[in-house]
Each structure stands twice: as structure tokens, then as C-alpha cells.
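Appendix C: a fully annotated inverse folding record. The material below is reproduced so that readers can follow the format used throughout the book. The structure is listed first as C-alpha cells, followed by the designed sequence.
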């Protein structure tokens, strides 16, 4: 159990780092929120930022494949309660904790 807690913390730390590196002002603004809300925001930002990175930066790669894989990995993590991608792991935990309605997510077969 301790290792799972450690992995959860590492996952959110990576999302926090991504938020701070990509958006200093947004990161600073989150300091007004309590820790639980901040961590949720970091996990959402990390998730969206990586998808955006695929689209904006990875021009020499098959972006469609990468986005489809990213989405599939998200659903796998959500279904299994764990992802080996720390950003997806942090985000799927937030989705479960906040109990997002699943109809807000597009299923990968629609990509």
C-alpha cells in the first residue's frame, strides 16, 4: 500500500511539474486553491498538456496514432485503476475522485 501511495504522489508531482514548466502564471494562480483542488487541476492540466504536445510538437510522428494510443491508455487506466503513464494515472484518479460523468469523454472508437 505504501508503494501505491508513493506512485500516486509521483504521478501528481509530474503533473505539477508539467503545469509549472508550461504555464508559470496558471501554476501560481492555483496556489489560491486548497491542496486537493490544486492536485486535481494539476492532473487535468497535465493530461490536456500532453495531448496538446502531441498535436503541436510531434510533427515527425504519426499524431493520429499517438492520440489514439493516449486515449486508449487513458481508458485502460480508468478501467484498471492504474496507468504506467504517471500523467494518465494522476488524471484517471482525479476522474474517479471527482466522479466526472463518463459521457463527457469521447470513446476512442469515435476518433
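Designed amino acids, in order:
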Amino acid at each position: 500500500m505504501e508503494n501505491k501511495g508513493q506512485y500516486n504522489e509521483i504521478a501528481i508531482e509530474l503533473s505539477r511539474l508539467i503545469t509549472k514548466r508550461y504555464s508559470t502564471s496558471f501554476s501560481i494562480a492555483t496556489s489560491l486553491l486548497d491542496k486537493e483542488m490544486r492536485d486535481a487541476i494539476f492532473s487535468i492540466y497535465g493530461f490536456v498538456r500532453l495531448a496538446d504536445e502531441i498535436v503541436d510538437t510531434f510533427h515527425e510522428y504519426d499524431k493520429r496514432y499517438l492520440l489514439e494510443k493516449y486515449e486508449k491508455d487513458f481508458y485502460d487506466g480508468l478501467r484498471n485503476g492504474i496507468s504506467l503513464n504517471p500523467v494518465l494515472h494522476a488524471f484517471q484518479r482525479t476522474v474517479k475522485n471527482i466522479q466526472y460523468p463518463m459521457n463527457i469523454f469521447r470513446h476512442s472508437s469515435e476518433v
